[in-house]
Amino acid sequence: MTHTPTNPDTPRPDESAGAPGAETSAGERREAERDAQAIAQDVVARVLARAGTARSEGATVHTVHDGDQLDLEERISLRRVGGLSTELEDVTEVEYRQLRLERVVLVGLYSGGESAARDAEVSLRELAALAETAGSQVLDGLLQRRQKPDPGTYLGSGKAAELADVVASVGADTVVADTELAPSQRRALEDIVKVKVVDRTALILDIFAQHAKSREGKAQVELAQLEYLLPRLRGWGDSMSRQAGGQVGGQGAGMGSRGPGETKIELDRRRIRNRMAKLRREIAAMAPGRETKRLDRKRHGVPNVAIAGYTNAGKSSLLNALTDAGVLVENALFATLDPTVRRARTEDGRPYTLTDTVGFVRHLPHQLVEAFRSTLEEVGDAALLLHVVDASHPDPEGQIAAVREVLAEIPGIADVPEVIVLNKADVADPAVVGRVQRRERRSVVVSAHSGEGMAELRELVAAELPQPQVEIDLVVPYSRGDLVHRAHETGGSVVEEHLAEGTRLRGRVDEALAVELERVAVAG
Ligand SMILES: Nc1nc2c(ncn2[C@@H]2O[C@H](COP(=O)(O)OP(=O)(O)OP(=O)(O)O)[C@@H](O)[C@H]2O)c(=O)[nH]1
Ligand SMILES: [Mg+2]
C-alpha cells in the first residue's frame, strides 16, 4: 500500500482557503514530506500487517466455554453490507449508524520523540481495529509529527493536501482522524480532502450504535450520539449536501445550506434537544428495574464480582470460562455493550454473581461515559473487581491506565478491591507479563483459552468474597424447606442429613440466616 506523493510545489486550488500555516518554505516542505513519507509507509506497513494491534490477527477463536454463540450469529447477520447505505440528506433523519464508512484512510499526530511516535502508532492501529469493527476497510494510515494539532485543519494544510492525494490515489471515501475534531476543523479538512472526515469519537459512537442490543443500551447510545451531533449540526448538514450534490469546490456550498437552512438548523436543534430530554427520561425510568434486581441479589446476600477492562481484553471469554455462560466473544472491539450478569459458585459452594461490562478504550467519548453512567455505577458496589488486561497487547500499562481513568469517576469504586487479571498468557510475552506483575500489587496470570491460571483465579475470588461467619449444626423442621434452600444458596460448605424430625444442617451461614434458623430449629 504505497502512494506517490505529489510535487509539493504544485499550487493547490483551495490551499488559500485553508488554515494559516499553508505558506511554508519549499525546503521545509520537502523535509517534512520525506519525514511523512517514511513514517507513513512504515506505519502503513505495520498497521496493515496488524502486528500487535488492539485486535489479534484473524478470525475469532472460540473455546468450549463460549457455547453456541447465538449472539454472534445475530451480530454477523447485522454486519454492514458495502454499498447499500444511502447518503444523508436530512440530518434529523439520520440514524447515525448509517454513516458510510467503507474505504477509509486513517490520520493521526504525534508530538515528536520515540515514545510519542510509538504511542501514536499503537493508537492508530487501534483506530484501524475500530474502523474494521465498524465494518470498513482500512486502506492507508498516516502519522504526522506536529507539536500541536493545527487549529484550522488539524493536520496543517500542507499535510492535509498530501492526505487528499493519498485519499484520491487509494480511492477512499472517508478519512478518520485519531482525535476528537472541533466542528470547524472537521469541515476545513473535509474541504481539502474532498471526502467525508470522521473523528475517533464518531467512529466509536458508530460501533456502539451497531452493537447496542437492549432497550437501555440503545437509548444510552442514541443519547450520546445526539450530544455529539448537537454542536456539529451546521457543518454536518453542509458537507453532506455538498457531497450529495457532487460539488467539491472549496466554496461550493450545496443547496439548502444557506438562507432558510439557518432556520432549519434551529428547528433541528430543538427537535434534537426534545429527543434528548425524552431519552434521558426513558433511561432514568429503566434504571429502577435494574436497581431492583441488584438490591434483590444484595438482600439475598449474593456478592457481585465485576469484570471490567479494556475492550477485547477477553472479559467475556473469562466470564464464559468461569461460568460457561456462552456470552458473545468476538475478535472485535466493543463486542459487549449490555452488562451480563451470571451466577457462579465458589469451590465450597458459596454463590456469587459475575457481571461482564462494556469495555473501555483510550479516549472513550465522554458522551458515552455519561450515557453509560448508570450501568457503570454497578461496578461501584461490587465485592471484587476483576480488571482484565490483554497481556499480549504491546502496551498493557497504557490500557490499565485508560481503564482506571474511567473507573475513577465511579462513586464507591475506591472501596472495591481490584485484582489485575493478566489474560491471554498463552500468547503473551513472559517478559511483559513479569513487568506488569511487578508493578501491580495484586495480579493473577491466566488464559481463558488454555485454562492456565484459572484455578488460581477461582481460589482468589473465593478468598476475596465474604465468608459467612456463623458456624451452625442444627435440625430444621421439614415444614421450613425454604430456609434449608437459603442455607444452600448462600452458605458455605453446607451439608444436610435427613433425620426423622427434620433436616440436619451443618456448615456456615451469615448472621441473619443463622438467627432465623436458630428460631425454628427443633431440639435434637
Ligand atoms: N489467545 C487468546 N485469546 C483470547 C483469550 N481470551 C480471549 N481471547 C480472544 O480475544 C478476543 C476478545 O475476547 P472477548 O472475550 O470478546 O473480549 P471482551 O473483553 O469481552 O471484548 P469486548 O466485549 O469487545 O470489550 C476473542 O477473539 C477471544 O477469542 C486468551 O486467553 N488467549
Ligand atoms: Mg465482551
A few lines on this structure:
With 524 residues, the protein is α/β, with parallel strands linked by helices. The protein contains 17 helices and 13 strands. The strands form three sheets. A six-stranded mixed β-sheet has the order 6-7-5-8-9-10, sandwiched between helices. A four-stranded parallel β-sheet has the order 2-1-3-4, with helices on both faces. It has a three-stranded antiparallel β-sheet with strand order 11-13-12.
What does this entry look like structurally?
The chain has 524 residues and is of the alpha/beta class. It folds into 3 domains: 241 residues, 3-Layer(aba) Sandwich (Rossmann fold); 164 residues, P-loop containing nucleotide triphosphate hydrolases (Rossmann fold), CATH 3.40.50; 51 residues, no CATH class. It has 17 helices and 13 strands. A 6-stranded mixed beta sheet has the order 6-7-5-8-9-10, sandwiched between helices. Strands 2-1-3-4 form a 4-stranded parallel beta sheet, sandwiched between helices. Strands 11-13-12 form a 3-stranded antiparallel beta sheet. Helix 5 links the parallel strand 3 and strand 4. The longest helix has 40 residues. The N and C termini lie far apart (82 Å). Magnesium ion binds next to helix 10. Pfam families: GTP-bdg_M (PF16360), GTP-bdg_N (PF13167), MMR_HSR1 (PF01926). Monomer. Associates with the 50S ribosomal subunit. Its main location: cytoplasm.
